Amino acid sequence: MEQLLCIDLDQPGLTGFRKFISSWLYRSDDATLLVDPGPLSTIPHLVSELRRAGIKQLDAILLTHIHIDHAGGVGELLKSFPSAQVICHPEGVRHMVAPEKLWQGSLKVLGATAEAYGEILPVPAEQIGFSEKIGKVQAFKTPGHAQHHLSYLIGDLLFAGEGAGVRCSVGQGIYMRPATPPRFVKQVALDSIDKMLALQPKRMVFAHYGMVEDAVEHLKIAQQQLTLWLQGVKEVSELEPAAQEKAFYRWLLANDRVFANIKQLEPDLFERERIFLNNSLRGMLEYIASTNES
Fold first, then answer.
1. Does the predicted model carry a pTM greater than 0.85?
2. Integer CA distances (angstroms), 209 to 23, 58, 133, 177, 212, in order
3. Residue 80 sits in which domain range?
4. In a domain, 124, yes or no
5. Is there a contact between 196 and 216 (Cβ–Cβ < 8 Å)?
6. What is the pLDDT of residues 17-70, one digit of tens each?
7. What is the CATH number of the domain that holds 116?
């Protein structure tokens, strides 16, 4: 019998970082799995919640990707669950074994946010690796959000990480946006979504945030948004850099009905999403500049 538990990993010290980062516990008759343990700062809470759920052992920890908010705490988590095997994209393994470069990169890009997340601790080399099949779990390389990104399929349930972007619950309709920080490559991102669509999942977990029962519909929205957003980025790319973000935001409100539901978010979540919007804009601007796509 399948059991699913979403464990919120809120960051009270960061504006809007609630109902945003989470870890998912998956239990069946033959395995106990954890997807994305989150950053170091939230590991004490995560361990407490796992113990409260009666978990004494984890068979595997599945990393969708090695960004600090998803994987930064795995080295610390292994101290509480030392028999767990960590599954990671092959290009990410070396960074988790020796994470100093990853940690310094996180500090450079995220600054105070990375400091709030906490340092990335190393994972023993013998406990981490890549496998396309782990029991009933199938791992798929979906490098749209990051080159070291994986998605995991268990039956009809897809753990999509950030491959389909970000969603938030709103009162009416759907709010979603792409998660396309540098280095973004359009065709790689679209191919990743195509790969997920081909799996025909019924349910899907967004790393940010929550599970949806109509996976294919959300994947199609993600697909459409990538193309639409690139169109909008091209329209503002000739503006002065200081004016681009506001102009792009206005363009999205007028042209992307799904993103326009940002107005339904609570003030702190709205503020967070406006900040992350600039990451996607920057990734797409760099892609357009590097390809001269018109």
1. yes
2. 10, 23, 25, 12, 9
3. 3-135
4. yes
5. no
6. 999 999 999 999 899 999 999 999 999 999 999 999 999 999 999 999 999 999
7. 3.60.15.10
